[in-house]
Amino acid sequence: MNEKLLNLLLDKKHNLDIYLDKDKDILKSKKTNYIKKNNIYNFFVNEEISDHVTQKQEKFYEEVKFPNYDGLENYSDLLTKSSGTNHFAAILDKSLAYNSKILEVGCGTGQLSLFLQRFNRLIFGIDLSNPSLELANEFKERNEIMNVFFAKMNIFNLQFKDEIFDYVISNGVLHHTYDTEKAFKKILKPLKKNGYIVIGLYHKYGRLYTNFRQFVIQNFGEKFKFLDKRNIDNNISKEKRFAWLKDQYKNPHETSHTLKEVLSWFDKNNIEYISSIPFENVSSDTNIFRKTNRKFKNLFVKELLMMFSPSQIKEGGFFVVVGKKLI
Known about the structure:
By secondary structure, the chain is an alpha/beta fold. The chain has one domain (41-207, 251-325): Rossmann fold, CATH 3.40.50. The protein is built from twelve helices and 14 strands. A nine-stranded mixed beta sheet has the order 6-7-10-9-8-11-12-14-13, with helices on both faces. Strands 3-4-5 form a three-stranded antiparallel beta sheet, with no helix packed on it. The longest helix is centred in the middle third of the chain and has 13 residues, at 130-142.
């Protein structure tokens, strides 16, 4: 393990440093051992309260490893895919600072973390699905990527020191937790003052067409999956079709939100609004961490129009908001 990555960790329950026991090949504090399964360290700690949704999501994503590595053999393949087809990932890569520390919360199979590892960045990706993390780690080891680390961890019980990361990214994850706003507050703790938070969520109105498809498919069967063009694209493998169908239409829990709602979270937690997608004009040259002076007049109307946006319909009603931690 990279020593710099190890220095980010903390046994939060006992407020103790975590270190590597080389003889036993385990990570531990003076009171807790963190065991490794299939090369993935388990830092998962349950909350004091029962969290049934977290348990359901853990089981769900053990079956659905999303996204998978179909057709991606090496880092060059991942670089080509992410730079060419993932508009947001390419913009994020150009915007993130050199030599920065990044936490990706809910990294899934780790493709975004691995793509962003250039420019001497140090990246920690966490998720609750061991099989997904195993895929991420296999790709990492096969390509000898040394500055990215993956571990199993609970969003609501993060085992990191406070104010240690320059950026915290959680893209398409918080809306699958039992309490989206509470999860948002939790992932702010390891973010440095003047650090940046990036969250991607389902939009309340942009998601309406997908909600309609969900209702039809869930109540009348998968024969109606033709309503989603991704599932009839001959260029997509059966594995990708399966993962997309399950994630979009069979997920055990999801919520949807508005930009106005997220802005209220920002206000309550001393987060300065910086930018958002698709509410602002974003190009490949945009630095999403550069503050815009945009004032959202008629925001409710703009949000309602999301239900008619072709890009929102295509992407399942997804939007991204960037903020800066002030305190």
